[in-house]
Structures are given as structure tokens and as C-alpha cells.
Amino acid sequence: MRKPVGGEVFVHYGQLYVVSEEGAYPDLHEAFRGQGIGLCGAAEAGSLFLITGLHTGDVSFAVEVHEERPEIAGDGGWEEVVEVSFRPVTTGSTLMQWAAERCWELDLPVADYRVRYCAAGMDAARAKDTRLDGEPALDRYLLQFWPSPPEPPRLVRRTSENAAYWHRFAEDVDA
Predict the structure, then answer these.
(1) Do 97 and 11 contact (CB within 8 A), yes or no?
(2) Burial of 67 (0-12, 13-18, 19+ CB in 10 A)
(3) Which of 54, 67, 128, 175 has its CB surrounded by the most CB atoms within 10 Å?
(4) How much is the pLDDT for 109?
(5) 144 phi/psi in degrees, rounded to 5
């Protein structure tokens, strides 16, 4: 397993992205169109639209790249878990903050991947809205990649009201 990202990542508007083509920022509605689940929009080629509970500030965030399907990260306290399929359009995949203020190289070859997005603390972070310097982290996230043929999006676990809102949003995009 490789961990290209680990630590705190700044979010704004409760968003982060994985992009594999420079300047190709995913659109909120298009990223979730036809998917039926929220939190990790994968409907636009070569990109992922990631939702966080916190509107603005640092969140705990890790990315793992596995050679095969990992178990769901132990008990880990993950309250939200979704899975989607992803295929980069170039070898230059990055995790990107709002407005490309900072990017982390993911080093993903062009291939089909399954992606698992896990979250905890979304409701507390949403209620707080903004995390200031020196305040404790409220929400945390894990994004896992592994080689896999495409499969339909899958909701594995949902417990928070914030996640429920985003799952309804994804369902309503097609309505």
C-alpha cells in the first residue's frame, strides 16, 4: 500500500477534488448525475468531486493506493462509506484543494480503479462550519484506490444527516 496523502488538508465550500487533466475541474451537478449516491461524485471522466462536512478549514485526510481491494478500514469509526469507479484520463492525477491552491500527486497509472470514500464526524463539522487555527479537528476522511473493473456506485454505510442530504442531492440531480 502507498499513502500519497496524509495529514490535514484545507477545504473550502466543503469540497475537494481528484483531477487527472490539468484545468478539468468537476462540476457539482455533473459529477453526481446518474450516480444515485452522494459524497464522491465520479460521473465525469477522469475526476472525483469529494464532499466534506466542514465548510472551511483543515480536515484530516488520507489517500491510500492498494494493489487489491482492501477491507473497509477496520472499525475505524467510519460513519459514511461509499464506493465508485474511476479511470484517470492521464497519468497526472492529483488531489486538489478549492481553486487549485494546493495539489498532491497521486501517481495513478491510467487504468480502472474502484474508489472507497470513508468519512467520520460530518454532522459535527457541518454544525461548526469553519475550523479556525488551533481548534481540534471534527471530521476525517479516507480515500482508497485499487485496480478493479467498473462497477455501479455503492452506498456501503450512511449514518449522518449531512451525508443523507448529499445522497438526496445525488438522487435529485436526475429528477
Answers:
(1) yes
(2) exposed
(3) 54
(4) 95
(5) -115, 135
What is residue 74's predicted lDDT score, i.e. its pLDDT? 60
C-alpha cell, 65: 493506493
Would you say 127 and 54 are in contact if contact means Cβ atoms under 8 Å apart? no
Contact 27, 43 (CB under 8 A): no
Distance CA 149, CA 156 (A): 18
* 2-173 CATH choice from 3.40.720.10, 2.60.34.30, 2.40.300.10, 2.40.440.10: 2.60.34.30
Type of residue at 8:
E
- Residues 51, 168 contacting (CB under 8 angstroms): no
The pLDDT assigned to 82 comes to 97
Is residue 18 within 8 Å of 150, Cβ to Cβ?
Answer: no
Distances in whole angstroms, Cα of residue 117 to Cα of each of 35, 40, 96, 133, 156:
15, 7, 15, 26, 10
